[in-house]
Amino acid sequence: MREDNQSSKLDFILLGASSQKEQENFFFFLFLFIYPITLIGNLLIILAICSEIRLHNPMYFLLANLSLVDIFFCSVTIPKALANHLVGSKAISFGGCMAQMCFMLALGNTDSYILAAMAYDRAVAITRPLHYTTVMSPGACFLLVVGSWVMGNANAVPHTLLTARLSFCANKEVANFYCDIASLLKLSCSDIHFNVKMMYLGAGVFSLPLLCIIISYVRVFSTVLRVPSTKGVRKAFSTCGSHLTVVSLYYGTVMGMYFRPLTSYSLKDAVITVMYTAVTPMLNPFIYSLRNQDMKAALRKLFSKRISS
Ligand SMILES: *[C@@H]1O[C@H](CO)[C@@H](O)[C@H](O)[C@H]1NC(C)=O
């Protein structure tokens, strides 16, 4: 078993989500419980959507892509946290730490752009139902997904390169269970003024999709209030509740974390990061499938096909 004090001088130490032993065990079992549920839940969503021809439309393709991002998103942090706890080590290599930071930023941003694409999709379906199939064509849908990945990476790679250039001196204890940009900047012994400015700029860019979501839903609600009884509108509106729940969970926790001064960060905040890194990706499949009859039917069909074959 590798001891912390034997780890390389270049390694970082991940303090975990808590400083107390009992709480550490609590988070270990929480992650052990959450991770398989997240993987299976999101995988089932993807399988159900891909195998059901009736769900081959933009709304469900975007949902399947969201599930795909969520699978990657929680796989960047949780397996490492679980493995470290099992072998009794807290070390993470410099490269591993930078990779973790980069993937978290990229996937987190991609997630928010896909949520924005989903809001736009609903806005088109409700405000311009007659043009829906031409506006949300397969090509446009593909472009929205690729665009989300490109924008996500564009808001991750520069921050990672800027952080990798910093010097880290004696203190290498990251006050979180993964290498998160704010915790790393706090540790550095270089001048971080520029990095901090860039981080806030990045947080601003991260909010652009939220602006798009808000505009989309203002248009959705104004249309629904004007023509409340149309059957098509009501059907298109039925998934908006689930979508808004996911958006508020995700943005609420991320903004609670990043929209404040760097000096106020502490280990306590690791609990907030647990919310958006682990809990939200786990809840997404349930939020979308429990209230959605088409999704439930597709899942039932998926299971009965497996059982009969
Ligand atoms: C993601 O979206 C694209 C474009 O609509 C679609 O072709 C693809 O099947 C989706 N991915 C998944 C995993 O469903």
Features:
mainly alpha; Rhopdopsin 7-helix transmembrane proteins; 3-stranded mixed β-sheet; globular; binds 2-acetamido-2-deoxy-beta-D-glucopyranose; transducer
CATH class: Mainly Alpha
What is the helix/strand order? Answer: EHHEHHHHEHHHHHH
Q: Number of helical runs?
A: 12
Termini gap: 46 Å
Morphology: globular
As for the number of domains, it is 1
Q: In CATH terms, what is the fold-level topology?
A: Rhopdopsin 7-helix transmembrane proteins
The low-pLDDT segments are 1-6
Bound ions, cofactors and other small molecules, one mention each: 2-acetamido-2-deoxy-beta-D-glucopyranose
CATH superfamily: Rhodopsin 7-helix transmembrane proteins
The whole-number mean of residue pLDDT values reads: 87
Oligomer: single chain
| Helix-residue proportion | over 70%
Strand order of the largest sheet: 2-1-3
Molecular structure report:
The structure is a single chain. By secondary structure, the chain is mainly alpha-helical. It has a single domain, classed as Rhopdopsin 7-helix transmembrane proteins, CATH 1.20.1070. Helices cover 74% and strands 2% of the residues. The chain has twelve helices and three strands, in the order βααβααααβαααααα. Strands 2-1-3 form a three-stranded mixed sheet. Helix 2 (58-87) packs antiparallel against helix 3 and helix 3 (94-127) packs antiparallel against helix 5 (138-154). The longest helix is centred in the middle third of the chain and has 34 residues, at 94-127. It starts with 11 loop residues before the first strand and ends with a helix. The model is unreliable at 1-6 (pLDDT under 50). Bound molecules: 2-acetamido-2-deoxy-beta-D-glucopyranose. 2-acetamido-2-deoxy-beta-D-glucopyranose is lined by residues 46, 49-50, 61, 64-65, 68, 141-142, 145.
